[in-house]
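Reopening this one. Same input as before:
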Amino acid sequence: MSEPAGAPQRLLGVALRGMAMGAADVVPGVSGGTIAFITGIYQRLLDALGNAPTRLWRAIRQRQVSGLWQSLDGAFLATLLSGILFSVMTLAGVIQHALETWPIPVWSFFFGLILASAWHIGRDVGRWRGDRVALLLAGAALAWWVTGLTPGQAPVNTMTLFGAGALAISAMILPGISGSFVLLLLGMYTPVLSAIDGLAVSDLAVFALGCGAGLLAFARVLSSLMHRFPDRMLALLTGVMLGALNAVWPWKQTISWRLDRDGERVPLVQENLMPGDFGAVTGEPVFLKTALMAVLIGVILVFAVDGYRAFRQCKKRALS
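Same output, byte for byte:
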């Protein structure tokens, strides 16, 4: 592993990354996997999750518990999860309020963030050949189609809760599509939030089991693919992120509504509009200059994080 797990300053950095991932996953259309990628912990996260079942089973069979925590990269995973949970519990309301109060600037910021992140991932592709361009286009088309689907309404039972957990958590670690967006598509967003709010232990347990199963299984597959076909997977993920821009386009017209857990109307189906059409159709301000500034801030943030990582790597090499 590239970093000692126990260094307090590094664990603080991991916790901050977890908080950023949690904040991103609250927003339907923004993935915590995107944050993991641009902050440099994506492959480590996949490897830790993907290898966990095998290493745990080996330790149980051989009755060798000593060293298991380090083998599982336990400090990293526990710290990251703590950051994610802390962020979800403390920042969810703030982010939702910002989306409701200043939708165009906030969506514009995330648009810039994802756009720059797609460049960041695509830059790491060794050579753009025909098969990689095809994978990029396929990923973009798939994400564009998924983000344009009309949300459904699934019955709330053991199977749907388990399946929703597995699919949502898988989306969370895939850059481009968020877990909360998948829950919206499945019609499970409000039931899951209601279960959390009402402390419905049995429902939450089933959902958590689905999350655990989906996370371990999907992370293992994704980790294996990233190691075996790195350039092709990076090309595919770049396409997924570009296609997912459809979900965070700032100018939207609401076609239909749903009731949230407080009984208030929130958008269910929305249609993307060009800025000029948005003003004509809705009669609301376009805030074009503000939106462009917010996009620029999102882009600059990704470049700043990337530059800081490059600086730390150069400093590390110089000291070694």
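So the earlier flakiness isn't reproducible anymore. For the record, Residues 1-5 have pLDDT under 50 and may be disordered.
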